Amino acid sequence: MREDEFTVELTELLLRTSSLTAAQIVEIRRELTAFVKKQGWVEG
Known about the structure:
Elements: H1 3-15, H2 22-39
């Protein structure tokens, strides 16, 4: 999976959690994207 595809899928998933703020979504997305890139789980 490409990084941009992962980011879109992750964002959609996080948006379903109504208790998260926009700032929290951005932070979670940033941290998880960095983690999966480091693990080699996404391309890019």
